[in-house]
Every structure is written in C-alpha cells, then in structure tokens.
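User:
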Amino acid sequence: QVQLVESGGGLVQAGGSLRLSCAASGRTFSVYVMSWFRQVPGKQREFVGALSRSGGSTYHADSVKGRFTISRDNAKNMVYLQMNNLKPEDTAVYYCAADASPGTVVAGVRSRYEYDYWGQGTQVTVSS
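Assistant: Predicted structure:
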C-alpha cells in the first residue's frame, strides 16, 4: 500500500510556471506506474500524464504536451509535474495517482479507474 501527498499548488499568472510534487510513503514505490490527473468542479477527472516505473517512458495528454513534464525520483519516493506556460484553462485540483498492476504499460491516455491509490489533491489557479 502507498500513501500519496501532493504539494506545490498555488496561484500563478498566465504564462507562468509551477512545479507540483507528490511524496509517496512505503518502500516499494518503484513498482507503481504513476500519473497526474486534474479535475474542475462539475467535470470528470482528466488524465494529464503517466510515467513508467523506471521513469524511462512517459505519456502526456495532448492538452498539456510540450508544456508539462512528469518525472520521478525513485530514491526519494517522489513524483513531479513541471508545468510551464500555464493557461487559465489549466486551473484545477491536481491529483497524484499510483497504479499497482504489474502488467501496466505506459503507452497512451489512461483512465482514472486503472489507479489504486490517490492523493488528496492540490489546487492550481491560473489567472488571465
């Protein structure tokens, strides 16, 4: 089992940058495929990006491709989301998620239902 705690959210102007962090508990962090999702009130939770267990494979949603980068540091049990050139439509609560399935391959958009563990979320607000 793993517990996830996000941090780094806040208020930023359009065009600015933020770096979100997700701290994971437990000694088997490297077995999880990790992802970031985001959600605005009244809408479905949206996939942002996914990262393989080693960090060697990533996939980002089209809406953030070229602006956001997901990464991890297995030695520190950390996952990051670097967000550049932020837009008002990026405003949302951002969630870190872990998939414990050993057969998972990072190769495209992933459903929130594929994830076993979630953090509590961190708010990102981008002003125009």
